[in-house]
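User: Teach me something about this protein's shape.
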Amino acid sequence: MRIAIFCLLFVNLMCGQGLPQGFSHRGVINDSQNRPVANKDVVIRATILDDDKEELYIETHRVKTNATGHYNIVIGQGERILPSDPNFKLSDLKWGDATKTKSYRIEVDTTGSGQKFTINGTSQFFSVPYAFFSLNNLGSLTAKSSESNSCTATVDNIAALKARTPSARFERVCVKYYSSELDNGGGEFMWIPEYNPNGDPNVDNLWVDIHPGGIRNNDDGCIIQRNNDTTKGRWVRLIDGYINVTYYGVTGQKQPDDGERIQRAIDYAAYNAKYNPGITEGTIVYFPSGVYKIHNELVWKNGVSLRGESRFNTVLEAGYPTDPNAPAYSTNGGSLLKLDTGRVVGSHISDLSFQGIANETDSSKQKNCFSLEAYTGEFGDGGLWNSTIKNVEIKGFNGNGIILKGRNDYTAPIQFNVFENISVTRQTPLTYSLYTNGQLGQNTFINCGFFAKFNYSMTNPSEFILGTNVLLSNATNNFNTVGIMSFINCTIENSEDGVNIQHAESVTFDTCWFENLNVAIQVHNGTGGFKSKAIHITNCRFANAAGFGSLKPNAFNQFGFGKCIFVNNSEVNVENCYVTVSRVVREDDPTYTIVDTALNLDKKLFIYRNNSSQGVFTRANSFQHPVLSNTYGLTPSVSISNSTLNLEQNVYCNVTSTAAATVATINTEMLPGERITLTNASTFNITFTKTGNLDFSATSVVLGPNRTAEFIKRQLPNNSIKLQLVTVY
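Assistant: First, the predicted structure itself:
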């Protein structure tokens, strides 16, 4: 029998009035066929080890699994085998010894005898339980305290703690709950005396040790100030993990406004990130399952992570601003979450759902979800760096889903970030699921979905929302383009346009799905003619992605000529893609296609390229039916200027001329070894001569009307470049 253990969760338990004396562990046991070992008496052996695998603590638990194979134990409250000292407590372990990391091991005996254990792996503790750590590592704090290492009193709530006069310096008091039973906002607090800024040797400078920034103001969560007392110290919450929003009286019961209290939790986590970088979990703000109402903007700060229980059960719901100074609703403000000034580095958001204002149609009250616009800070730079957003759902916003906006002066880019397993659904026209602008680089989207609100109807074309799901744009600046953006295994669906790219460089769509779109991808130059370059569309699938394909054509033809890819004055590579049902094709007969010029079905193309000088490179694409491979403009017309042809990235060109002409030089961005094909599309002869960079055996070569010449680019031993004629036909 193979035993599988997963879903490990360690949570400190409060025992009576003392410190945590155990960890809750929940697990499940499956057999070798992945079936639950249900309703069975088993023995669980838990072992804590140091980094050289020395066994520090061993205990066993006799439990019975439930109908799904799950069990629950409290490590620290089992039948102890090691150590043998009857007075030993789990907190006696040296949790704070930086030279000795610790790990835990779980073993299972499904026979119930306690003799046949199966080892199921060993995992390291990634954080030290703070309460256990503090027992051994408070240093001068514990040395100067006359109190024992446990609570000396218990009070009902935070209000009672505020009213309490400490009985001794460094007194510890247990609080049952924040304001009422079952709100989970209680915990253990220690009285920290006043920090003396004048350096009086008779007064402890403990606030420097515990809070390097000096004495902290009351935040009604982790730092509690006594009633009417502004100078005599603070009650400080002893935290053994994440900054739980319940510490600030937030219950997840959709209270009128949780935003201000949540912001205090973020501020405290930001303080830990700045002054206590070794306390990793103290920089994470945790949201248990529930619905949290947010009216004013939350500010995402440097080093702070926001983590929910799951993207399905933890919801942050937007509301109307209650602060008269709050930003107006617009594309530049009025968001649920915005970026702080200065650099925001190593900050993460995960396992959350964000819900917009339902049924709000007034465009003047537009509210975005994430407004990640970069602002410079005290050190002169800013932006979002080396951060992640993952396992997140965004829906119901009448503004934009995600805004990424870097500055155009090199001071505040959005870069080195990863967005993973995100679903964003836009609600209204003229908004975007993803909007980018300014200097962006090295941003990756993995397994993300960008959608428009969609209720399919065979008779009502308005069920498709006008506008674009993804906009990648920096149309006003030649240097700080949107660049190095990758979309991997992403989905873009149900919209007039899927992706609109304006003046971007090095953007990749790899293994992405495009469906139910009038135009799947548009690639444009920006204002001033700045071109989009190195746009790569590879290994993608297009389904009903040109004029909505087989979806009731007379209903959706209002959007114009459909095409999977539209290219305007830009350089695009399209390789290894597959196209299906992008025109009306009968399911029972893939060879049958309706071509109705009145409905412009014959204009639903794979690629439409305008007659510009930039190139579209295609290779190894495949189609459900040959008719789906139709393109327009992939062989551009190029005119001769001063005996020169400027081909840029194009490899197939029609050469036009209003009279007999001579070509001596061909300028191309192709590399040595690549071939160029030129067709004389005029009614006059074109003569190629060797006076420029062309090479052939004769003195000159004449290319008549409708004749084609093929050249190969060569790099000679002296490193000069020649275009050698291969053949004329």
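Now, about its shape. The radius of gyration is 33 Å. The first strand starts at residue 4 and ends at 6. If you'd like, I can walk through any region in more detail.
User: That's plenty for now, thanks!
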